[in-house]
Amino acid sequence: MIEFKLRDGDIETAYIELNKLLKATQVVESGAVANICITDGLVKLNGKVDTRKRAKIRKGDKIQFEGEEIVVM
């Protein structure tokens, strides 16, 4: 499990885009690879496949990809 902490700020508007999260946690080599994996349906957001590259990921969300789980804190 990978824990990713969002930067401090307004808790209601704090988010990271899905493709940027995959790159920031180094589960993919680049943003381009992240985009391909997302559009191919290989990434789950809170247990459901999500094909939105720029989906807003907020505190409490869980991402599953290739056996890894990323928890956003």
Summarize the structure.
The protein is of the alpha+beta class.
Structure, explained:
With 73 residues, this protein is α+β, with helices and mostly antiparallel strands. The protein has a single domain, classed as Structural Genomics Hypothetical 15.5 Kd Protein In mrcA-pckA Intergenic Region, Chain A, CATH 3.10.290. It contains two helices and seven strands; from the N terminus they run ββααβββββ. It has helices at 18-24, 31-39; strands at residues 2-4, 16-17, 43-45, 48-49, 56-57, 62-65, 68-72. It has a five-stranded mixed sheet with strand order 1-7-6-3-4, with no helix packed on it. Strands 2-5 form a two-stranded antiparallel sheet. Helix 1 (18-24) packs across helix 2 (31-39). The longest helix is centred in the middle third of the chain and has 9 residues, at 31-39. The protein is globular, with a radius of gyration of 11 Å.
Summarize this structure as a short list of keywords or feature phrases.
single chain, 73 residues, alpha+beta, Structural Genomics Hypothetical 15.5 Kd Protein In mrcA-pckA Intergenic Region, Chain A, five-stranded mixed beta sheet, 22% helix
